[in-house]
Write a structure and sequence with these properties.
two-stranded antiparallel ribbon, 25 helices, mainly alpha
């Protein structure tokens, strides 16, 4: 039975005898045979080569990486090597075996000599346990079998699911806080003084929103929009933003503790990735010389310039979205369709958000063709696979981050602030006016943009992520029927090799790449960015993330177990560079939410009005709401006769400018100073709280430290 357990399967087309491809394939298989590999060939519509490594390879692996005191000097030690380790070692040797033509396996796959190379999903007990307890929708709310995942997919995949499960669990608290914030906002939906003033402003004439076919409009027409804005933008939002800054820190600190516990239970504390890679290189080639550390300032400068150029391209895409919104707003306002002209601003925001989502999908597809990244990695020349993966992670994350957030940054911090004022509007190509904010603020635009992108990403993207492997698996099954030889009269049918059906079934599954797990991490880390950075504008983000993650865990499980070929197990003792990325996002979350409240929200202008200009500052007006008169105070007057002498009308617009020369008023500078002061105070307080939380919660639990200490003491006592 043991003879039929194969570590890897290589798949090739049936090439003509004597062809170049056939010769290259033979050379590679001969190199494996020289290393003692057993190779079994099965012919169907493709050629399948089962590969099994010799026992001495795993004995060498154990001798090189086990503690010297515990090394076993007998050749049967290979039997104790887990299947995940066998696959990892064999995969490394296959990838680094060089033919006489100086070609490796990935070169041969590029040249179509081989089509695929993959480890097998076998019918074993642990796989059945995972299918029953993990890879099915029926166990949606049950705890994940992390130990079994580790035994089947390796530590790296197990740590991903442990991290995702931990993140999802802590999202419950963030989601409840977000719901409480929305509920608090709902209580002031109709009772907000600012909303009441907008709804009662039947005589407040506002300046036209576009130049052609746009008339003056009455402020009270936007009553519902104002109510929604003040449901999002209130005092509870400030508290929620501070809570989320603390939550992000606590989440990471608690994860570090969880990771330390897991790494200790898996005996990974002393494991070194670099040492393992060196050991594998020596097992593959005993004459191997290590690649030394190198650094080139010239190469780093070139990489930095190229990375900045890519970011500039993404900012250019964001500018295109700004242009779209300005043009769409003007066209919708001029439309003869009443629905479009009446709700032009909201429709422009919604379609802009959908267009932004489409650009995210397109740029993600472009990113998946890794030619630019291969160039950057070639310039950097990373030493090891781990270093290559880290460099790749940072660049792709920055690319995806700017793709997802460039438009949101514009809406949050620039929309309505660079559009000019009546008589002196800023125009695109001298024709289309830039958008302005609603008199009650810009935060609803940011809310809509985030809501549309998150909902679309978590529905359409996830459905496609699940359906594409499912459909491709079904198509492969239909397109690859087993080839049966016609029987002669009186001839008995030959018994089919038991390996054949197993290998075919694995071949029919969807392909996995080296970066399959990377893509899963990237998706969740971008979601984490949405959940923390601009969460003050969209308190429902943690709830959407929670719902998505509960589904995502089991969808990923089903894909890995039933729809995709087996992933090559990788060893790891943490989530790698993703932890630094998450810490950077946590810092950005403090800055982002501070800026949203200080700049995007109307919280600061309302507070300045209450304490400096409201009726409450002029005597005992206990019965009067202190924000009474705020709308009139926040709108400037434009005299149309300054530009059209025959017209004596006035209109209002959102800004703090003098009516005579349109310079900024004293109130503008008061608000500017208050915004700056709040931003500095908020960020310093939030960062201090983050530092205190990081200090208060130790990264490594005491029981883990004591366990390691006791182990060291016992080893030293034995040596003594």
């Amino acid at each position: 039975q043991n003879e039929e357990k194969w570590d890897f399967v290589l798949v090739s087309d049936i090439h003509e005898m004597g062809s170049e491809k056939e010769a290259k394939r033979k050379k590679f298989l001969d190199e494996l045979s020289k290393k003692g590999f057993t190779i079994k060939k099965i012919e169907d519509t493709k050629l399948f080569y089962g590969v099994r490594a010799p026992q001495h390879i795993f004995w060498k692996y154990q001798c090189l990486l086990m503690n010297p005191d515990n090394r076993q000097q007998n050749s049967s030690a290979y039997q104790d090597v887990p299947v995940t380790t066998r696959i990892r070692v064999v995969h490394f040797i296959l990838q680094n075996t060089v033919t006489s033509d100086l070609e490796k396996l990935h070169d041969l796959i590029k040249k179509k000599v081989f089509e695929a190379a993959f480890p097998l999903h076998r019918k074993e007990e642990i796989r059945e346990i995972l299918k029953k307890k993990w890879a099915r929708w029926r166990v949606l709310f049950k705890e994940q079998p992390i130990e079994e995942i580790r035994c089947y997919f390796g530590e790296k995949v197990a740590l991903y699911f442990a991290w995702l499960g931990w993140y999802t669990y802590l999202l419950i608290f963030a989601a409840l806080a977000g719901l409480a914030t929305v509920a608090a906002g709902a209580t002031v939906f109709s009772s907000s003084q600012v909303s009441k003033e907008i709804c009662d402003a039947n005589n407040t004439i506002m300046c036209p929103l576009c130049d052609q076919n746009c008339s003056f409009w009455v402020l009270s027409d936007t009553c519902t929009y104002a109510k929604v804005t003040h449901m999002i933008d209130n005092e509870a939002t400030v508290v929620f933003a501070m809570f989320m800054a603390i939550w992000a820190t606590v989440f990471l600190e608690l994860w570090k503790r969880e990771r330390a516990t897991v790494a200790t239970s898996w005996d990974l504390y002393g494991w070194d990735e670099e040492e393992e890679e060196l050991a594998l290189q020596l097992i593959n080639n005993s004459q191997h010389q290590p690649q030394l550390y190198q650094h080139s300032y010239f190469r780093s400068t070139v990489v930095l310039i190229l990375a900045l150029l890519m970011i500039m391209v993404l900012i250019g895409i964001a500018h295109a979205l700004v242009i779209y919104r300005a043009v769409a707003m003007a066209l919708f306002m001029q439309s003869e369709v009443n629905l479009l002209s009446k709700h032009a601003d909201i429709i422009a925001v919604m379609t802009g958000a959908i267009l932004h989502y489409i650009t995210i999908v397109i740029t993600t597809k472009v990113r998946s063709h890794a030619a630019p990244w291969a160039l950057l990695l070639f310039l950097e020349k990373p030493r090891t696979f781990s270093q290559r993966e880290n460099n790749f992670t940072v660049k792709i994350f920055l690319f995806q981050f700017f793709t997802n957030f460039s438009s949101l940054i514009y809406i949050a911090f620039f929309l309505g602030r660079i559009s000019g004022h009546p008589g002196h509007y800023v125009r695109i190509a001298g024709h289309w006016r830039l958008e302005e904010c609603h008199p009650s603020g810009c935060i609803t635009d940011l809310f809509i943009q985030m809501a549309v992108i998150m909902v679309l990403k978590q529905t359409i993207s996830n459905i496609m992520e699940y359906l594409i492997p499912l459909i491709s698996h079904q198509l492969r099954k239909k397109q690859k029927p087993p080839r049966k030889r016609s029987l002669m009269l009186g001839e008995e049918e030959e018994a089919e090799d038991p390996c054949k059906r197993q290998w075919l079934n694995n071949y029919e599954l969807s392909e996995v790449s080296v970066f399959s797990l990377f893509n899963e991490y990237l998706e969740i880390v971008i979601q984490y960015s949405f959940t923390t950075i601009f969460v003050a504008a969209f308190p429902l983000a943690p709830l959407l993330a929670l719902i998505n993650n509960v589904i995502e865990i089991h969808m990923d499980a089903i894909k890995m177990m039933r729809l995709r070929r087996r992933m090559v197990p990788r060893k790891a003792k943490d989530i790698g560079i993703w932890l630094q990325v998450l810490e950077a996002i946590g810092t950005l979350a403090v800055i982002g939410n501070g800026l949203v409240i200080a700049i995007t929200s109307d919280f600061i202008p309302v507070q300045v009005y209450k304490y400096m200009y409201s009726p409450c500052t002029r005597g005992n007006h206990t019965s009067v709401d202190c924000s009474t008169g705020y709308i009139n105070y926040s709108l400037s007057v434009f005299h149309i006769q300054d530009f059209e002498p025959h017209t004596k009308l006035c209109c209002r617009y959102r800004d703090y400018r003098n009516a005579d020369d349109y310079t900024y008023t004293v109130q503008f500078w008061h608000i500017f100073a208050a915004r700056l002061a709040f931003l500095i105070l908020f960020e310093h307080v939030a960062l201090c709280v983050k530092l205190i939380a990081a200090w208060y919660i130790p990264d490594v639990p005491q029981k883990v430290k004591n366990k390691i200490l006791t182990k060291k003491h016992i080893n030293l006592c034995n040596d003594l």
